[in-house]
Design a protein that fits this description.
The complex is a heterodimer of chains A (188) and B (196).
Chain A lengths: L9 H9 L4 H13 L1 H18 L10 H14 L2 H29 L4 H36 L1 H5 L2 H30 L1
Helix pairs in contact in A: 1-3, 2-3
Chain B lengths: L7 H9 L6 H20 L2 H17 L10 H20 L8 H7 L6 H9 L2 H12 L4 H11 L5 H8 L3 H29 L1
Helix pairs in contact in B: 2-3, 2-4, 3-4, 4-9, 7-10, 8-10, 9-10
Classes of the chains: A mainly alpha (188), B mainly alpha (196).
């Protein structure tokens, strides 16, 4: 027990229990533990706690734990970035379907006047039309701007444009596959 | 080969080849030991289970970074250990229970005849109950090596890798952790013997 030459140190007794000593060290320590009452007592006390520690029962996870992990893993692994975007848009799409059914039901039952609806429709249409023409002019502006930088892509008509568009799609797809999905996993 | 005897490395190769469903074998294989480690480190069952889940998901998503130089379990427990430590550090609600008295007990290795006879009289179940409760009272830096060594049955080298600490530090902390635990358990045993 003491650190002196006559006793085995406490650290050495632990190493003896852990079986991490060389065969010579182990034999020397073993000889001493057999002959020395004080060290033997320490060895037995340490071994008692040790074996109880080693036999401590394992904690169990809840039933369905593995399934939950696999569900989380599958969600993280198999959903491409584009699918996640669509997943979110699906709520908006669902809302439009429900709204359409509700308005149709109101018109059929006479709660809503069809004339009022058509007025609203034309008003909404006008808004969309303005937004559409705004977007079209933006695209046109963008095209002109691109054409100034990439004249080769626009010089030979629609074929070049299609090729540029296709290249962009391919680059986006590769980026999605290599970076975005991995990034989304980490975020997830 | 039977799934129970299949090496972790083989399953990981299958997962990398696209058979991702095989990850459930690794989860089943390691979940209880992982749960035991997390619970001993963070102290609350719900929190521990959530951390184990997070660790498995994180391990899966970073499986391409696992090079197979160490065992999967060592690599995985390092992820789990770091998550647990982040949680414990953030919480900071539970103070470290290493007071002056404990500090004095760390290196006191004296074993008297009483200790041995009380230990020998105590039922194994009772002893385990005391040990399980007293592990939670060890300060974190001593608790981690004790839990990794006994619950995860890790070697000194594996513990050094999980704890990201030098081998000598790990050995010293394990020694001190065992010693303090022995004395905390002994104090409880003496209390219980007195009350009986």
């Amino acid at each position: 027990m003491k650190q002196g030459s006559t006793h085995v140190s406490s650290a050495r007794i632990h190493e003896y229990i852990d079986n991490t000593l060389s065969s010579e060290e182990k034999a020397n320590a073993g000889d001493h533990l057999r002959d020395c009452g004080e060290c033997k007592r320490a060895f037995e006390a340490f071994t008692g706690i040790d074996s109880s520690l080693k036999d401590l029962p394992l904690e169990r996870t809840s039933p369905g734990f593995t399934r939950t992990v696999m569900e989380r893993v599958n969600v993280a692994r198999h959903s491409p970035f584009a699918f996640r975007v669509l997943e979110n848009v699906a709520y908006l799409f669902g809302f439009f379907i429900v709204a359409t059914i509700t308005v149709t039901a109101f018109i059929v039952t006479g709660v809503l006047d069809a004339g009022q609806v058509s007025e609203t429709q034309s008003a909404v249409g006008e808004v969309f039309s303005k937004a559409g023409s705004g977007m079209a002019s933006s695209v046109e502006g963008l095209s002109k701007w691109l054409a100034s930088f990439l004249p080769f892509a626009f010089a030979k008509g629609s074929l070049s444009v299609s090729l540029v568009a296709l290249s962009v799609v391919i680059i986006l797809a590769i980026t999605d596959r290599l970076f975005l999905r991995r990034f989304m996993h980490k975020v997830h | 080969m039977h799934p129970l005897t299949e090496p972790d490395q083989k399953i990981i190769e299958d997962i990398r080849a696209g058979r991702t469903h095989r990850y459930s074998i690794l989860v089943d294989r390691h979940k209880d030991r992982a749960m035991t480690l997390a619970l001993r480190l963070v102290g609350m069952k719900e929190e521990a289970e959530e951390l184990v889940q997070d660790a498995f998901v994180r391990a899966f998503n970073n499986l391409d970074q696992f090079r197979g130089e160490a065992k999967f379990s060592t690599w995985f427990y390092r992820i789990l250990y770091n998550l647990c430590m982040t949680k414990v550090t953030r919480r900071k609600a539970k103070p470290e229970l290493l007071d002056v008295h404990d500090e004095m007990m760390l290196d006191n290795i004296f074993v008297d005849q009483d200790e041995l006879s009380i230990q020998q009289r105590m039922e194994n179940d009772e002893m385990q109950r005391l040990i399980a409760s007293e592990i939670e009272n060890l300060p974190e830096k001593l608790r981690s090596p004790v839990v990794l060594f006994y619950v995860q049955e890790m070697s000194y080298d594996e513990m050094a890798s999980v704890l990201d600490a030098p081998l000598g530090t790990v050995k010293t902390n394990l020694f001190r952790g065992r010693n303090l635990l022995r004395q905390l358990v002994l104090a409880k045993m003496k209390d219980e013997v007195r009350t009986v």
